[in-house]
Amino acid sequence: MDKLVIRGGNPLLGTIRVSGAKNAALPAMAAALLTEEPVILENIPQVRDIITERNLLAAMGAEVELGYGRAQHRTTLCCRHLVNPEASYELVKTMRASTLVLGPLVARTGEARVSLPGGCAIGARPIDLHIKGLEKLGAEITQEHGYIKAQAKRLKGAHIVFEKITVTGTEDLLMAATLADGDTVMENCAREPEVTDLANLLVKMGARIDGIGTSTLKIHGVEKLHGAKHRIIPDRIEAGTFIIAGALTGGDLMIQGCDPSHLGALLSKLEENGVKLRVNSDTVRVMGDSQLKPSDITTEEYPGFPTDMQAQYMTLATQCEGTSVVVENIFENRFMHAQELVRMGANIKIEGRRAIVRGRTPLSGAAVQASDLRASASLVIAALVAEGETIIDRVYHIDRGYEHIEEKLRNVGAEIKRIGELFPRKASPVAVS
Ligand code: UD1
To answer: Which domains, and CATH codes, for the chain?
Structure first.
């Protein structure tokens, strides 16, 4: 298993370019299942989860064409012949978002067999809302041998009210409803920019959707969708991660190619902390020489503070003068990074869904373990400000969602390298974010 070795203390100076959003690319790739024609996706990040999804679609019979050279972030998917409408346990266990194929598969082919996601590093993450919604759309659902099987001659429009806001649940049912017979109204939908990006792609493919960007989506089902070309939105979580890194390392960092309008809750919180920011249409400049004030956050659905930025914010809170309270409202077990931050010198007390962070505590390099994707990002940031050397184990978590992170950080002055094991052990199968 690879490890990252980081020597802290260098100010980050220069420009980092943000990649396409993994969480927008994954549903966009699943949307290709809805049509026989090619779907051309640009700005696809080169991260492990994207490879997993490509393998998943290819196993179903999708033709996948990857761009080279300057077009290396382009992926063309053509699902003309779908031979095997199944998402196997082997793939679903490493990436829970594989369940995104459930809705489009049953809508297009009349059947889908998708493994239930297994044990999960950030809490129990059921897919009951995907299943209930598909049942409302007329699918017959059975469960056997750890798999969910969905069948329907043709899905029928329905009225769906989500009991709880779910991002991939909204995306899954939105895709399914585009090919249903009649109108579907979905209430209490997730409003994350990634949901909006998917809806915009579906409209380009011929879907009829009203209310895009709001919590009520109205879908008028059509018989067929066609191919389209679409550019994936920038990754707001990657941008936010680098903004926090810049705020803590005392340099002057330009985050380029991001969409600051997707970063509202984070940027206003950082301003409260006293971080010096200059925001433009597609750049955020962060000047990290200020003394930081503490502040509290509560994770919420978009446009609230994102749970995917909670771990990175906790690292920032360790460097603020005073006490910050971090409340995690979305997932019940998403504080695993706290223990590792404590090992680096942080003062953090966990009380259920609340973490009380007392700062400012100097951090010192240590051997730490990444437990999930965003937890690993918080440890990278901590390592960049720590005194001495930090070795982060289980780097495969970060490779799931951050494109060329070492290269990007090294280019702005970080001392970071990757070391591999001579005799790699097998990565443990955990499904996260
Ligand atoms: C997506 C993101 C992930 C992010 C999360 C919350 C992708 C690929 N992943 O995950 O990075 O952390 O949104 O912003 O986009 N729930 C149920 N039943 C369901 C579905 C969800 O109870 O059927 C619960 C979950 O356990 C959780 C909450 O709803 O407590 C929100 O989960 P959800 O929005 O579905 O997260 P994901 O879509 O899996």
So the answer is: 3-19+234-419 (3.65.10.10), 22-231 (3.65.10.10)
